[in-house]
Amino acid sequence: MYMKNLFQVLNSIFIYLRTLIVLVILGPPVIILMILVPEYAYKTASVFSYIIFKSLGVRYKITGDFPDNGPYVIMHNHSSFLDIFFLPFVIKGKYTGIIAAKNFKIPIIGLMMRSMKGIPIHRKNIIHSRKSIEIAQERIKDGYHIAIFPEGTRTITGRLSQFKKGGFHMAVNAKVKILPVIVKGLYDIKPKTRWTIDTSIRAEMIFEKPINTLNKSVDDLIDQVNNLFLKHGLE
Prior knowledge:
Elements: H1 2-36, H2 41-55, E1 59-63, E2 72-76, H3 83-86, E3 95-100, H4 109-115, E4 119-121, H5 126-141, E5 145-148, H6 166-174, E6 177-184, H7 186-189, E7 202-207, H8 218-231
Parallel strand pairs: 1-7, 2-5, 2-6, 3-4, 3-5
Antiparallel strand pairs: 6-7
Helix pairs in contact: 1-2, 1-4, 5-6
């Protein structure tokens, strides 16, 4: 056990240093490209996310495909900071997300979020949160997929947190389908409460079928999405 823990510590240090080097070398030209050639911003961000995800040493499996005929409100369980790199490289088309405001302060990553019209949200400010939802609805009208973590924040137990209603109201008001995306394994690889990364575990992303929001209540949609997550072993 001691040797395993020592390996995980040394391996994690190596992974973080490697990822930092990748960020420093590729980050600035990627941001410049996204600003100068905005029509390629989303593809550029997808490729960059893939490179970062691989540099973090994560092995993964994807079950299902990202569907056509969007845009969608993408509902994604939030288990690790790794989530923000996993989803982007499988999305088709223009996309952005409702993201905790503090993340926009992260060097390079924050600039990329701004370039992609990311929507900051202050979870403890109800008025500001509602404004963020309204902005997201306008983005949907412009053809953007909107990614949102219905739990609001990362789990610290590995279990699903209670869903917030904002994203469901957004989908109903915008009359678009919800795309449930289930991610398993990332919590065990890198939970919020541990700094080391366990690369012996493989992550999995599962695409469920889009859910029609027409003539459905917010509470019914919350139950439907929650039940899908539970079906895949999340608790």
